[in-house]
Specification:
Order of helices and strands: EEEEEHHEHEE
Number of strands: 8
Oligomer: single chain
Strand content: 35-45%
Distance between the termini: 24 Å
Structural class: alpha+beta
Shape: globular
Largest sheet: 4 strands, antiparallel
Amino acid sequence: MHLHCLSEHHYVTEPSGFMRVKSGKIAALLWTTPMPAIVRHILVKDKDLAQNLKDQIAGGADFAKLAKLHSVCTSARKGGELGEVKKGQLVGPIDRAVFKGPEHTVQGPIKSSFGFHVVQVKFRF
């Protein structure tokens, strides 16, 4: 646990990721660690294929079916589902897309050292 004093406010950061704030008669509990996201993706080796898959999804194609057919990631068998991920858990370009990009929107193609990704953040907590 860490104690921070800032003017009249006292902040205690707990290992759970919560921060307790005390100010006079007011006390609050704040979440201080980055919130996870639920993500799915399709990984392919070719940028044009990634763009084509993104376009198909925009046209109504089923993301999970396309992931099963085309993705070279082991998540393909689960329809591209990566499940719950935390900030810093994914490679840089994908991590940035997941935690800075929009929710519910198909993003890509995003280049990483593994290939080209089509990514969708289903939601962030």
